[in-house]
Amino acid sequence: DIQMTQSPSSLSASVGDRVTVTCRASQTIDNDLNWYQQKPGKAPKLLIYAVSILQRWVPSRFSGSGSGTDFTLTISSLQPEDFATYYCQQSNSAPLTFGGGTRVEIK
Amino acid sequence: QVQLVESGGGVVQPGRSLRLSCEASGFIFSSYAMHWVRQAPGKGLEWLALITSVGGGVYYADSVKGRFTISRDNSKNLVYLQMDSLRTEDTSVYYCARSAAGSRTSDGFDVWGQGTVVTVSS
Questions:
Q1: Does the distance separating the beta carbons of A96 and B50 come in below 8 Å?
Q2: Is the dihedral of CA B92, B97, B103, B104 positive or negative?
Q3: How far apart are CA B62 and CA B108, in angstroms?
Q4: How many CB pairs under 8 A join A and B?
């Protein structure tokens, strides 16, 4: 099975900060890497798929990058509505594993 | 609109069974692979199971293999999760989700239900 390791598990940041979340796969997953945003009490929402393709609802301050085993989610200028938990997920092979999540909190 | 609605959650004793249902609407259900994902209280997301668009292929997480069964009825736009031999650690919110890439699984899950709560307790 492919293990997904996210870091950090949580971070505190201020509005306007640049935020970076990393995700490492235990083996190469090509570009089959997706990111989700989840707010408390809500279902997750697909944010980015195939490493860097933004869903239509996602503002351009979000970006994704990486290849092979190492991937990054970046928020260029954190906004109040971005405080949430973010998960990476590999969709290369079953089981389709998630990372442990990164909680982005207000500083 | 495109929608998934789960049902069937509740409180069940350890060792018992429960069947969850997920009703799809607003899209051509038979063209999409479907998934179940769960989230234990205060924990992260755990993918559980996948069924291909026509139901010919199923895949499971090791944690539920042999206990849970995913199935679908394309004539009714329903996907099911039969959960047997339930354990206290199965207590979670259970979500169904749609594959963004249709019959493939490569592009994540673009539509999620609201979730149904399963509590396994004596």
A1: yes
A2: negative
A3: 20
A4: 63
CA distances from A29 to A26, A61, B84 (A): 9, 25, 32
Q: Quick check: B44 and A34 CB within 8 A?
A: no
Render pLDDT for A53-64 as a digit per residue (tens, 0 to 9): 999 999 999 999
Which residues 6+ apart lie within 8 Å of A75 measured at CB?
A: A18, A19, A61, A62, A82, A104
The confidence score (pLDDT) of residue B114 equals 98
Mean pLDDT of the A4-20 span: 97
CA atoms within 13 A on the CB side of B58: 17
Tell me which residue has tokens 């394309």: B74
Which of A44, A91, A97 lies closest to B107 in CB terms?
A91
If you write DSSP's letter for every residue of A29-53 in order, what string do you get? -TT-EEEEEE-TTS--EEEEETTTE
| Mean of pLDDT over chain A | 97
**pLDDT of res. B63:** 97
Range 25-84 of A in CB contact (< 8 A) with B: 32, 34, 36, 38, 43-46, 49-50, 53, 55
